[in-house]
Amino acid sequence: MPLLLDKLVPVERFSRARLFHHMSRQEPALFHSCHVPLRAKGETRAILLRYLRDSPLADANVPVWVGPSLVRRRLHVREIADRWDRGRGILGITDLHIRDTAMERLIDTRVLRDFNVLLCGSPGMEDQEKLTLVISTKGYVTDSHSDDPDGSNHCFVGMKLWLMWDTFEGLSHGLEDVERVEVYGQCRFDLDTFLALNSSRWLTISEGQTLFLPGSLTHKVYTMEDYLGVGGFYVGLPNCVQTLARWIEHGPLWSLADADGRCENLLNEITDASISKAIETRRSSARVQRRWGLPELEYAVHAWIRDKRLQTNGELLRDPRFTRLLHSLKRVPKLSRHGAIAQK
Fold it and tell me: How far is CA 258 from the centre of its chain?
């Protein structure tokens, strides 16, 4: 029990400075008071169900996992909403895309998105945000997997238990990740091994709380109460150095499934967009610099420069994208007084 409590991610009051602090250190963060309001009056559950049943999105036919054995089926969104509302049987969908739909217009997701460099570039970059609705019933389990890049999840209704750990530390100790290894049945997992990992963390997320999760962490998720949430993926200035380094070393997950080469130049685009945003922000006021996380970016850059792994990791040092990013960003100004306070 003491070990479990030591690995619990605490719930914090949300602030942009605290979020950027955790992003720059690649730490999971769980917040209350991170407001993701609905642009309609009424009870949250009822409003979301009404839009799922009556908006044009209701006619979409989407893949969903159903039943105790989690069989993959295609159902209309309206039917998914009805089954979820009745609470009979197990089902789950984590990638119901809502971009350019009535549901996106209903949910004010600015707090999850307005620091996202992915939205400052091409349509291909913007598509990587993957703004989605998350729906699951009590008892639904999402097997051990990882995502790219870092991601957010805001809970409107219900509760989930998240177990998370560094992907490659877990693989080296026998904890599987369905995105990185061939898995037949369920991923190999046991609690003793999980607790022995230096990187292992866990939390429960419930109504009104928001999780920000580094893409470096594999996670296994259990729905404790019928759940409705919204989330997406992001690259911000505070985490762009670590994200690019991980992608160069291990490959971004989206490239592993890119059979037709549509994402071939995406890594370069994201690098260029991060550099451009940092340069633009550096020339702006201190308020704008704090809004985009420039002080936390300086921390991340200096941490990488001090990291001994850089001296031995030839692949990173030879990659022009990474060296260009470091050389461009290490000229950011000294931490402001406000930035220093935010990191304490």
Answer: 20
Strand partners, 234: 150
Query: What is the spatial distance between Cα 91 and Cα 138, in angstroms, rounded to a whole number?
Result: 9
- Contact status, residue 216 vs residue 147, Cβ threshold 8 Å: no
* Beta strands at 201-206 and 71-76: parallel, antiparallel or unpaired: unpaired
Average pLDDT over residues 202-221: 97
Tell which wins on pLDDT, 33 or 185.
33
Distance from C-alpha of 165 to C-alpha of 27, rounded to nearest angstrom: 11
Evaluate if residue 336 carries a pLDDT over 50: no
CB under 8 Å to 208, separation ≥6 — which residues?
32, 33, 155
Alpha-carbon separation of residue 126 from 20, 93, 241, 322 (angstroms): 21, 22, 19, 21
Contact 122, 88 (CB under 8 A): no
For residue 325, what are its two tokens?
Answer: 């990013």
Can you tell me the distance from the alpha carbon of 221 to that of 95, in angstroms, rounded to the nearest whole number? 15
pLDDT at 344: 33
- The contacts of residue 22 (CB under 8 Å, 6+ apart) are 28, 29, 212
| pLDDT (0 to 100) of residue 155 | 98
H/E stretch holding 292:
helix 286-292
pLDDT cut 70: percent of the chain above it = 90
Backbone dihedral angles phi then psi of residue 12, each to the nearest 5 degrees: -120, 160
CA distance 32 to 23: 17
Secondary structure (3-state) at 4: helix
Q: Which residues lie below 8 Å from residue 185, measured CB to CB, with a gap of 6+?
A: none
Confidence category of residue 319, pLDDT binned at 50, 70, 90? confident
Burial of 93 (0-12, 13-18, 19+ CB in 10 A): buried
Q: What pTM did the predictor assign?
A: 0.91
pLDDT of amino acid 301: 83
